[in-house]
Design the sequence.
């Protein structure tokens, strides 16, 4: 019999096993690059998981070789020019009166910064299960989760300085990585392999690839045993501490600079991400 607790979107998969919901990005042919529809589908599954009392833990994963290589900059299903249902109370970025910097600012508030903040506040434990590449927008998803478990062949990378922007839209790097390492990570834009990410405290576990899902499953089972209300309060407390340290406020500033950089690139190169082929790049 079909289990109605499971589901499939155009770009995602959803499966409940026991008390754990497994939400998977499903664009392996494009290394799970994120178009808007994929992110909207993820949000729908998170909503379903939050409202299902039997779901105690949520795992975010990616099908195929890679977790996610970031935002969709030009695959055939890139949907930057497609109208979408807004998740927050932001207006339609495609409406005719939006020119200049307003269009990109509007869409990224809702789909990038907005969704990551919303997912960070999910009142259940969330685990990012990372294999292969976790790049730029992929980091945003991993950093939105409570815990990150990676295979030891995974790598993390934020190369966006090469695109002329100061960082990704949701950028808690200095809250996730020790300062000296965070600076090197961002400035040099090089790959950080999972064992190094574990060593510096950026992720919780680095395990052999063939043990990744079992490790995450075992961790999820332990989290599922925690009384939900106590966990909910603990998570809010952790988020309050981050915000008390300035996480939300500084990200608002970084987001504004990110859009100054988008606008600068549009003025000087005609595309949003300076230095890249404008035919290939519609959004950064
Ligand atoms: Zn952007």
Sequence:
């Amino acid at each position: 019999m079909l289990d109605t607790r499971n589901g499939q979107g155009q770009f995602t998969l959803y499966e409940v096993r026991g008390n754990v919901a497994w939400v998977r990005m499903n664009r392996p042919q494009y290394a799970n690059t994120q178009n808007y529809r994929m992110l909207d589908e993820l949000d729908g599954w998170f909503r379903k998981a939050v409202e299902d009392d039997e779901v105690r833990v949520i795992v975010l994963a990616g099908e195929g070789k890679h977790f996610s290589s970031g935002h969709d900059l030009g695959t055939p299903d890139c949907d930057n020019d497609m109208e979408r249902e807004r998740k927050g109370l932001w207006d339609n970025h495609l409406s005719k009166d939006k020119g200049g910097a307003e269009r990109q600012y509007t869409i990224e508030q809702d789909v990038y910064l907005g969704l990551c903040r919303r997912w960070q506040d999910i009142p259940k434990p969330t685990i990012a299960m990372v294999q292969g590449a976790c790049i730029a927008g992929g980091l945003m998803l991993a950093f939105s989760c409570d815990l990150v478990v990676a295979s030891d062949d995974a790598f993390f990378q934020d190369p966006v300085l090469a695109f002329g922007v100061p960082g990704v839209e949701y950028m808690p790097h200095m809250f996730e990585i020790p300062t000296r390492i965070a600076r090197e990570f961002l400035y040099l834009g090089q790959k950080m392999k999972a064992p190094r990410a574990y060593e510096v405290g950026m992720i919780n576990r680095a395990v052999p690839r063939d043990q990744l899902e079992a490790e995450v499953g075992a961790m999820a089972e332990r989290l599922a045993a925690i009384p939900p209300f106590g966990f909910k309060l603990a998570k809010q407390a952790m988020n309050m501490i981050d915000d008390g340290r300035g996480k939300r406020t500084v990200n608002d500033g970084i987001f504004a600079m990110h859009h100054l950089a988008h606008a600068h690139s549009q003025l000087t190169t005609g595309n949003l991400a300076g230095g890249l082929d404008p035919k290939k790049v519609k959004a950064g």
